[in-house]
Every structure is written in C-alpha cells, then in structure tokens.
C-alpha cells in the first residue's frame, strides 16, 4: 500500500482539503475555510500546514477565539448546514474562549469543527504555560471542558489516530440526528510527529447528507391521528430549513388546510405572506399562532426540539392536545408523549402528504387561522406606525429596516430585546433570509455571524440588529469584516443597557437593578459613541435620530463598499405585546410585596403546564 509521510498536522489539513460535498448541483469543498488565532500550541505545526494550502483552504484571522467560532456557526446557518467551517485555537484560554461558541452550535444542532492545541503527551515540559493542572488526574486539561458542549470529542495522542477520528467527526457533523460541533484536541508534540499515512486516507471524497425515511408503522399512526383531527396545527422548526423542506411543508399545509406557525429557528422556512402562514409561536411569538395553539387538538411538530420559548413553558396548548413529532433525532421526536416519527423532514412530509391525499382540515378552521393572522398583521401595522414620541420603539425601528431590506437580505439577531421584536415584526420576504440564534441566546453571536454569513454568500447582504449591550460585549469582528472585505450592515439600537432583562426583572416584581446603566453602580451613566468607535475599526457609520432618517441611512448603507454601522437611540420600555406565559424562578419569600405577588402568579401559571418529559 502506498504511503505518504507527513506530520500529523499536515495530514489533518490534507484530509480536510480533500473532502467535498454537493450544493445546488455543484461540487464544493466541505470545509471551505478556517478561522484561526495562532499561539503556542498551534503556531509552529498546524499553522505551517495551513500556510502551505492557503490557496485551497483559506485561513481567516479572527480577533477573538469565541467570535471566530461564532462566525463559523453563522456561516453554517447561512448555508443550511451543507458546509462546515473550522475554528482553530492555541491551548488554554484560547481554547476555552471557544467553549461558549461550542454551546451555541450544540444547542442549535449546527456543525463546526473545533481544533485546539493541547499539552504535551510526553509531559516532559509540564507544566507548560497556560496549562491547568489537576493533581488527581494529569490527563485532564481545559480541553475536557468541551465534552459538555460537543457532539464528538477526541484528543489525538498518536498520529495514526486521525485516520479513524476525522471520518467519525465528519460523519457526526453531517448526520441530521447527531449534527453539532466536533472537537479534536491536538497535543503539541503529536502535531509534529511524522507518520506513514495510507494514500487512500487522502482520497477525494464527496459527502452527502443522509435523508432517513420514517418507519411505516409510525407514519400510518400519524395518518390516523391527522385524519381524526378537527383543529390541526403545524409547528415548523429549524429542521425544516436544514432539510430544505420549506416548500414541501408549506405546500402540505396549503393542500390540507392546516395553519402553519414557526419556531424561532424555523422562521424563514416560508415567507410571511404565504397563505398557510399563521405567524411565529410561543413567548416571542404572535397572538395568532398562540391562539391557534390553545385550540389545536393535534399538533404536527416538524423539525423542532420544542424548547420553552416555543411552548410557553408548555402552557401554549390545550391539556388534551395530541402531538405528532417528525424529527431526524429520536431524542427530539419522543418529547412530551408525542408520536415519534423519526426521519428527514422533507421525505417524511412528502410521504405523509401522499398518505393523506384528499383529506383536508375543516374549512372553518382554516379560515379561522387566516382571520387570526390578519388580526396579527393589523396589530403589527399599528405598532410599527410612526408616532409623535421623541424616541422610536424597537417595533418601529424593525419595521423601517424590514421595509428597506432587499428581498434576500439576511436578518441576524441573537440576544436582548431584539429577538422578540424581530420574531414578531420582521416579515420574511424570501425563504431562509432570517437567522435569530435564540437556542442559546448568545450575546456576541450577531456581529461575528454577520461576518461569517457575508463570507458564505456574497450575493446577499447580512443585516445585523443588536442593542448597545451586545455591541459592548463583542464588536471586534466589525474590524475583521472590513479587513477581509466581507460587508454587512449593522443596526445598533441604543436603549441604555440591558433593557429586556430589566423588563423581566420588573415584570416579576423586582426593582430595576444592575441592568440599565442608570441603575448600575457607576460614577456617571454616560453613553458610548458607537459611530466613532465603529469608524475607528474601518467601518462606515451614521447616527440617526428619526425613523425617516433611518430609512434613508439603510438605503445609503446598501450602496457602500464595506461594513456599515447605523446607530439610533431607542425606547427601553416599549415592546410589542406577547401573550404566552414563561416559567422562571421567582423568590418564594421576599420583603417586596410586588415580588410576593409575582411569585403567587407564577405558581398559578404552573398549574397550566403540560406534564411531560
């Protein structure tokens, strides 16, 4: 057998360069690039290997290990999990900076390959700088922290091990059921070791994503339940988008007269004005979808993990509602006594549609869904309408940006008050043009994801919407995007702190404390000049005061040649209404009467929760 002698780091990189996939009929690299910050632990070996192939596998330098891994995740979401970016760090704090990003990918079922430098296997230099020692277990180091937030974890202690490890990591990241981040620790001395690798290991390989079909018995039971339904409802989740099932699910809903609502991850699977669409569901959802959920007798959940923001902590549904859950992951499909139909969303819905051919929900229920959605749209129109108030609301700002956005422009949000407002107020114009990372609600995802999404698809412009709190937490990839030439538009809504958490604090009887800047222990609660700050990182900037100026600024931003930042002061207390309940901890004992009242109300709300697993 022909062998290729190279170092472990060189072999790893060579393997990545020879993995391909098919996207829209074209063969493309499975790993289109690497985000890397080099330090001791990866600068002498891994970087040497990456430098040699930089024209094939480009390396992009981030400003922070967490944000570059978040950029990789934003890339993966933009391409609907069909390609995988790599994020590489040194040992110690560089590696640990990626743990939060791994949590984002794990919670959202997204692929990213994380490569972190590791301590010496031979232990001769121990303890090395940045090594955390465990007196009772010398095999433990900071990279073990990734075990809780990755789908695949390995540490390479012999150069031959990557022959089995890398294919397993790739298989995990491409599996619809197991999809998530893969981590591989690369000890410094193992990276340098040479080995005779079989040439077959480097053979060009074209991967495709499997589409498992549902069990016939489960599908037949789903058919029986659906045909018996009087008031069926579809909940479309992120799995619909990643399966490329948006059109199939929308057609199924329309053909069979079933109102279709969306989760946070599923929003954008269909356009806002699709005739079957009934709005987003749950805590940051619409009155229309939540009203339908409360009346539905059979809920067809497709590609959703049914988290609390979707279910209203399991209070959105009638106590006797039955669930059919179509999901590639058995774990998600079997939740809350649902009939688990384990399979790919697109294939399962196509088979289900064929099996119920000729059946339609009662026309009055279909019409009821359309009427509820019409009322919701009228409510949005009212909240987005300009007023005489001196400071605009989030709803008004989102409405203006939405109207001026291009049809395919990608909206990106993640944390603070923005997610609830864009979930409600952003009217999706084209499929897969909405990315709200709310599975982990990671502050700092947004700007990094804008950079990654711009890299993934240069034919559209990411529009990133954040608050001032998120900007202060992680903004350095404004600089990254200008350096690399990947443009996005950033809208910063400055409401003086963590306003949405202050809202929750007040709603549960608490005093405003340590959230809005004016309520923090500070010498002076002054604002940051975000336009000047972003301008110092190379961005083009504009501060606006009015909604009319905001519209003009968005039109201007669409014409610029680099990342463009628009800032506007926004109201910290005005929110688009929602009517779903949320379970949070409220003190059972408190000196504040308002807290005691909130605790009693919380206990009453818990009586409505659906008991399940």
Tell me the layout of helices and strands.
Blueprint: E1 3-7, H1 8-17, E2 19-23, E3 26-29, E4 34-36, H2 46-52, E5 59-61, H3 65-78, E6 86-89, H4 93-96, H5 99-107, E7 113-118, E8 152-155, H6 162-174, E9 182-187, H7 188-192, E10 194-198, E11 205-207, H8 216-228, E12 232-236, H9 238-242, H10 246-256, E13 260-262, E14 277-280, H11 287-295, E15 298-302, H12 308-311, E16 322-327, H13 330-333, E17 339-342, H14 345-355, H15 363-384, H16 394-404, E18 410-413, H17 418-425, E19 434-436, H18 445-456, E20 462-467, H19 468-473, H20 477-484, E21 489-494, H21 499-507, H22 530-536, E22 540-544, H23 547-557, E23 564-569, H24 593-606
Helix pairs in contact: 1-2, 3-5, 3-18, 8-14, 10-14, 11-15, 16-17, 16-23
What does this entry look like structurally?
This protein is an alpha/beta fold and 613 residues long. The chain folds into three domains: 3-207, Thiamin diphosphate (ThDP)-binding fold, Pyr/PP domains (Rossmann fold, 3-Layer(aba) Sandwich), CATH 3.40.50; 216-375, Rossmann fold (3-Layer(aba) Sandwich); 385-569, Rossmann fold. 37% of the residues lie in helices and 17% in strands. The chain has 24 helices and 23 strands. The chain has a six-stranded parallel beta sheet with strand order 5-4-6-7-9-8, with helices on both faces. It has a six-stranded parallel beta sheet with strand order 14-13-12-15-16-17, with helices on both faces. Strand 8, helix 6 (162-174) and strand 9 (182-187) form a beta-alpha-beta unit. The longest helix is centred in the middle third of the chain and has 22 residues, at 363-384. It starts with a strand and ends in a 7-residue tail after the last helix. This is 3D-(3,5/4)-trihydroxycyclohexane-1,2-dione acylhydrolase (Decyclizing). It comes from Acidocella aquatica. InterPro entries: DHS-like_NAD/FAD-binding_dom, Myo_inos_IolD, THDP-binding, Thiamin_PyroP_enz_cen_dom, Thiamin_PyroP_enz_TPP-bd_dom, TPP_enz, TPP_enzyme_TPP-bd.
